[in-house]
Amino acid sequence: MSDELHQLTEKRFTLRKRFTLLGWIWLTMLSAANALVLYYRPFANLLGIEAFEVHHGVWPEVAILCGALIVLKAVYLRIFRRSEQLTEFASFKEALLQGRVLRMSLATRCIFLLGALALVSVGWFAREPIGTRILALLFLLFAAVELNFIIHPGETLHPDPHDELLLFFRARMLKVGYVTAILALTSLYVASLFASPYVGLLVPIALTISLLVPAFVYRRLDRQADE
């Protein structure tokens, strides 16, 4: 029994480490490619849309880059890693259903969400409409991930929907999140009366607070349950 448990733990650690490493490599490559495309703007010169980007921003560069990367990755996986991909998918599905695939930690989610919030805030002060919209979409993506954690709490990507403890945690998180959101909306309304130009900056800050407060409540409840 101990040998089986050891093998299961080792398999879980290896699978998680591999997916985490591949995710970080892909994110690094995507960030580097995005920075190079925004700096040199190769698609504008290739397709002759320089005038369009001057008036409407550089969002076509990012859209074309994302589409090209998705196509290239799909072709690479289809040609060179078809059988390995099927095996990995089957292993990942089994691990997911058994609750062995864990979510990102609270610290990591805070780094991503607060980092995106910082970029949105800098973009707001820079007054670059198109760039700010792209950063806002990135921020909303991380906000959606955090919202999914509030609606479906748990350490795994596929938590048990009938777990009574998680249902209790979710009820407490939603209650705290609701109160926090009401207070945030009230603060935004007051700010709109006295400092309306800054409401666009305060909205993502209020959303971040409304999402992170329930997450910290979950962490406190989870620690109390382990004691």
Architecture overview:
The radius of gyration is 22 Å and the shape is flat. The chain has 2 domains: 1-101, no CATH class; 105-227, no CATH class. The chain has 227 residues and is mostly helical. The protein has helices at 2-40, 42-47, 50-56, 59-80, 82-97, 106-126, 129-151, 164-194, 199-226. The protein is built from 9 helices and no strands. Helix 6 (106-126) runs antiparallel to helix 7 (129-151) and helix 7 packs parallel to helix 9 (199-226).
Principal-axes shape call: flat
Q: Mind summarizing the main beta sheet?
A: none
Please report the total strand number as a whole number.
Answer: 0
What structural class do the secondary elements suggest?
mainly alpha
Q: Compute the number of helices.
A: 9
Which range best describes the helical content: under 10%, 10-25%, 25-40%, 40-55%, 55-70% or over 70%?
over 70%
The oligomeric state is: single chain
Give Rg in angstroms: 22 Å
Low-confidence stretches: 4-13
Mean pLDDT: 76
Measure the end-to-end span. 27 Å
Describe the structure concisely.
The protein is mainly alpha-helical and 227 residues long. Helices cover 85% and strands 0% of the residues.
Give the helix/strand layout.
Blueprint: H1 2-40, H2 42-47, H3 50-56, H4 59-80, H5 82-97, H6 106-126, H7 129-151, H8 164-194, H9 199-226
Helix pairs in contact: 1-4, 6-7, 6-9, 7-9, 8-9
Highlighted features:
single chain, 227 residues, mainly alpha, 2 domains, 9 helices, 0% strand
